[in-house]
């Protein structure tokens, strides 16, 4: 029987922010497809370790605060120690909410640093290794509906996620012919810490829910298939896309 084009056995995936939410769900989905997981983040990864273990895949954690690029070289070195990293999922991200008119420089910088600056330099550092041995790899950026839309009260988040979509396209153009696929996933509204404030605001919750054609908030497990696709040989000719996984939100 021919191998599945979604088979990730023998591959290693580095997932940032893998301790919870979408990062955890993506790590588990990649593990279920056969990939070993290097979970990178600033919090304990025990829960993710247990879930990846249940999938029968190898797991390692690398502790790092990604609010600056200071740990980037160490992260890449530690992650690559036992063998090369084939897949990078740039998932770690934060959001700060305030009216644009009151928005502070601190909230601007904090979001841009995690969501865009560290993402770029971590990708650069890992891509240098992927290019050096000529075997290429897969980069998956976790974008947002705010890569396409404006939103309200989240100026630095919208700027960072719109920037990430542009960066995805630029890197795809530079690296497609060199064997690295760079793509993004744009999650819709998912049940995670990131959306806690929206879900606990009754009016916002109802307004959001009424606009989602699928009729429910996304569960983290509903993001995994798109990540497996973009991490696997099935997407070898896919470059520079921002793939919405949004219950139909953008189709509305
Ligand atoms: P989440 O539960 O808040 O997860 C965010 C992840 O990023 C956590 O693992 C968090 O670690 C990590 N992180 C944040 N700052 C970090 C830092 N300085 N160093 C290391 N790790 C850091 O929210 P989520 O929804 O799963 O978010 C994951 C990604 O999806 C984000 O990029 C987010 O923008 C994006 N997204 C989410 C939605 C949604 O509806 N939920 C929609 C569109 C896009 P800690 O737990 O230690 O803080």
From TrEMBL:
Top EC category:
oxidoreductase
The organism of origin for this protein? Antarcticirhabdus aurantiaca
* Listed EC numbers: 1.1.1.127
**Record-given protein name:** 2-dehydro-3-deoxy-D-gluconate 5-dehydrogenase KduD
What keywords were assigned to this record?
A: Oxidoreductase
